[in-house]
Design brief:
- The protein is an alpha/beta fold.
- A hairpin with a 4-residue loop joins strand 5 and strand 6.
- Bound molecules: flavin-adenine dinucleotide (FAD).
Length: 378
């Protein structure tokens, strides 16, 4: 399609906001409508676990600015997409016509609670973070289910707040993605900080209503003042039911962020690259796809890739920045610094792929890491 008059973006987090910015940067002077369900508007999620849980002054720093973009905002949930009529319906009764549609509805937290079971905490939205922070104010103990990035960040917040925390997972912390070397490094440090880890032989269930703990499959019961489930996310595609746009992985896209339907593009956590057949639910990826989707929606050939393999996390005050493909296996082939002392640059050489760089506890800007990675691959 060339020069669409009206572009509708559904979802106003980083992928949707990036798409709106890119549309204007590429010269689109037609209508842009941004449909967003969250009552707080557009905001950044990474600080929710890193600062909001510990510090209420962080709340006011999260919003994405839309100044100067001349965007019409519809603050309601999209409930239906009519792909023939090219029209979006929202819960508050708006009908918004589009020439090009960008879907950026992201994902929501997976939950463990049975229907009707109250009191499970998750962390995906600002409201989730505010509810969890309030509960942490009076808690002495917490259980975190899931030892991935989010689980480890929530456990770190508990430590910072002097709350005894137990992290439960079937795998070793972070091992699925960061491999055994970094898993050991992080786990040793976390245990020294007082985090208790339990390997469960299978999936756990929540016990009590309201929730007061968890049950392991071998019958072991653990109790705590609160339980936070950090067990991944599911793409927000329920509103697209019946359109054929989404499957169990989310919305399949090609390298131009095009879906299988004309003039419909998708970006961010809701989408997955069909050639890779898995979602890469990271911030930089959502930015990369927001840009590509905007260019494609305008009929341009995208000049950047629909993926970005930069990821960062922060655990117990130590930043871990990863540039390159994951998962990592085995030990690094090069170590510069002292990982045990909490500061090192680590490199994993990979067969027939670019190396993966990890800045562990080094506040190196991502631009520097990218330059280093480029020099290593020459
Ligand atoms: C606590 C936390 C910490 C994180 N930390 C990191 C990190 O350190 N590093 C990193 O790389 N990544 C991190 N991530 C992941 C990163 O935030 C996500 O990859 C990113 O937010 C994805 O952006 P998105 O725009 O695709 O989707 P989302 O951020 O999920 O936003 C989707 C938006 O769409 C809206 N929406 C959903 N359904 C509808 C509908 N039907 N109608 C209208 N609007 C709708 C939602 O309200 C939401 O605002 C973190 C995520 C969380 C939750």
């Amino acid at each position: 399609m060339s020069h669409p008059g009206a572009v509708v973006i559904v979802g106003d987090s980083i992928a949707g906001v990036t798409a709106a910015r890119e549309l204007r940067a590429l010269g689109h002077d037609g209508r842009i409508t941004l449909v967003g369900a969250d009552r707080h508007g557009a905001y950044s999620r990474p600080p929710l676990s890193k600062s909001v849980l510990k510090d209420d002054s962080a709340d006011s720093t999260l919003s994405y600015r839309l100044d100067g973009l001349d965007v019409e905002e519809v603050r309601s949930s999209a409930t239906n997409a009519d792909l023939d009529q090219k029209r979006i319906a929202t819960a508050d009764g708006h009908l918004v016509d589009y020439d090009a549609l960008i879907i950026a509805t992201g994902a929501d937290a997976r939950r463990l609670a049975e229907p009707g079971q109250r009191g499970e905490f998750v962390l995906r939205t600002l409201d989730d973070a505010l509810a969890l922070r309030t509960r942490l104010d009076t808690a002495d103990s917490a259980i975190v289910v899931g030892a991935g990035f989010l689980g480890m960040e929530v456990a770190s917040a508990c430590v910072a707040r002097n709350i005894a925390v137990t992290v439960v997972d079937v795998d070793r912390p972070l091992e699925r993605i960061l491999g055994p070397y970094l898993s050991t490094l992080v786990t040793d440090r976390a245990e020294r900080s007082g985090i208790r880890f339990i390997r469960t032989p299978g999936h756990v269930s929540l016990s009590g209503n309201p929730v007061r703990g968890i049950a392991l499959p071998d019958g072991t019961e653990l109790s705590a003042d609160l339980v936070v489930s950090c067990i991944g996310e599911t793409p927000n595609t329920a509103w697209l039911q019946g359109t054929g746009l989404a499957d169990h992985l989310g919305i399949g896209i090609d390298d131009t962020c095009a879906t299988a339907f004309p003039d419909v593009y998708a970006a961010g956590d809701v989408a997955y690259l069909r050639k890779a057949a898995n979602r890469s639910a990271f911030w930089s990826n959502a930015v990369a796809q927001g840009r590509v989707a905007a260019a494609s929606a305008l009929g341009h050939t995208p000049t950047s890739a629909p993926s970005d393999d930069y990821f960062w996390t922060e655990i117990l005050g130590t930043s871990i920045k990863v540039l390159g493909s994951l998962p990592l296996r085995g030990a690094p082939s090069h170590i510069d610094g002292d990982p045990a002392a909490g500061s090192a640059l680590l490199i994993w050489n990979r067969v027939s792929e670019s190396p993966t760089l990890v800045a562990y506890g080094i506040r190196k800007p991502v631009t520097r890491l990218r330059t280093m990675a480029a020099s290593l691959t020459l």
